Amino acid sequence: MAERGVEGIESVAVLGGGTMGGGIAGHLARAGVRVALVDASPDLSRTARERLLERTRGHVEAGLLPPDATDRTARIETPADMEAAVAGVDLVIEAVPEDATLKDEVLRRCAAAAPVEAIIASNTSSLPIEGLAASVSEPGRFLGVHWFNPPEWTPGIEIIPAPSTTRETVDRAIAFLRAVGKRPAEVADRAGFVANRLQSALLREAIACVEEGLASPDDLDEVVRSTFGFRLPFFGPFAIADMAGLDVYKSVFETLERDVGPEFAPPAVLREHVEAGRFGTKSGQGFRTWSEDEREALLLERDRRYAALAKLLAELDDGGA
User: Fold this and answer.
1) Region 258-262 average pLDDT
2) What dihedral angle (degrees, nearest 10) is formed by the CA atoms of 22, 28, 29, 30?
3) Whole-angstrom distance, CA of residue 306 vs CA of residue 321
4) Are strands 11-15 and 183-186 parallel, antiparallel or unpaired?
């Protein structure tokens, strides 16, 4: 797999040895990629590597990683400085703290020292990618990659091109991340991208529910994790709405609009679908079009996955997790 190179990517330099940088470096090393990890000083780089090795050993002992994971992690190199780390690599992942000035400095230095054909990526959860691209010479090779904590285990990664990013750069990055076991999705360069915008909206409403006395934080967390959150590992909001019925969703929005506030008015596209008789899977069309065979296969697969997750959660709860 990655040991033979994917889209010409055989070696990666990770800049920043914190939680995200260390986790990214460890995942890539265990996938067979040659990895260099560098922090602000040689001592900090070595400390980051040792911290990662200790974490990996713990995961192996817990049965979360295979026995050879420690040896693969131990192959991570810690060059003397950033310039040495990026020399000759195919991909640079900048993962320093969310400080635009610091990222600008790091990106300028690594862009000057890395091969001109190397992809340069910034791991950021909020900073505009177009602004960061100005720090990179040959900005067509630059893009944002938003890994999620913990990076070893969370499969999703947001891929955020800047206006200057080439299509080839995006496609190579996506192919590489898929090859090392991740599930990248391309999103636009907007505030919060997609995941944080949705997470922030959920937290905003969760806080409002608690402040209004609807539930305690503990009970609200239970509602989220065991109802609609239970479905989210397998289906996104559009598929879930199609399966539930867009007419049902429209009615819920109308009730919320009446009793909570105008911000819950049914979205225009939802009203249009319902008024046209496009209710989702039960009518054959909603946000997506469904044939009868597709509908039956989807609902059967839904039930199979939900049953498996319910069993897993019961087993984890029995184990005291």
Assistant:
1) 95
2) 110
3) 19
4) unpaired
State pLDDT tens for residues 149-208.
Answer: 999 999 999 999 999 999 999 999 999 999 999 999 999 999 889 999 999 999 999 999
Give, as one character, the DSSP assignment of residue 2. G
Q: Which of 48, 35, 39, 27 is nearest to 76 (CA)?
A: 35
* CA 20 – CA 157 distance, rounded (Å): 12
Fold of 2-186: Rossmann fold (3.40.50)
Residue at 220: amino acid letter: L
**191-198 long-range CB contacts below 8 Å, 24 or more apart?**
191/126, 191/128, 192/126, 193/125, 193/126, 193/144, 193/146, 193/158, 193/160, 194/158, 195/146, 195/148, 195/156, 195/158, 196/125, 196/126
Give per-residue pLDDT as tens, 106-133. 999 999 999 999 999 999 998 999 999 9
- Look at the block and give the residue holding tokens 């000057």: 112
**Separation CA 228–CA 226 (nearest Å):** 7
Same fold across 2-186 and 227-318: no
Domain boundary assignment for the chain: 2-186, 227-318
Residue 60 is which amino acid? Answer: V
Based on C-alpha coordinates, what's the Rg of the chain? 23
What's the whole-model pTM score? Answer: 0.90
Q: H or E element: which one contains 233?
A: none
Domain 227-318 classified CATH 3.40.50.720?
A: no
Beta bridge partner(s), residue 156: 183
